[in-house]
Amino acid sequence: MELLSENERQFSGAWKKMEEQQSQREEAREREAKEAKEREEMRYREATEKEERRYREGVEREERREERRLAMMRESEERRMREAASREEEREERREERRLALMRESVREAASREERLLTILEKLTK
Fold this sequence. Notes:
Number of strands: 0
Number of helices: 1
Largest sheet: none
Radius of gyration: 53 Å
Distance between the termini: 183 Å
Helix content: over 70%
């Protein structure tokens, strides 16, 4: 009986040790699974952050490109307006020159008429 009791104690101890080892293996598997899940979540977050950063950079590049395009359009429009103003100024100067030329011609013609009239008047008064 004592031998049976000793066998039962040994068996019970061995069984308990086996259960503890099994429990430790399960805990280790759970830890590994949890760590693997955390690593996967970290990789997913990093990949997501990388994609979001790429997207933001793409949007920023596109915004800068659009700003440059608009700046070029503004510069082009300003240049066109300056050129148009310059052409209008040149046209106005040519008009003024023609007007002055016409006035000089008119003064010459008036002087010539006056001279002819004076000549006629002198002839008549002689």
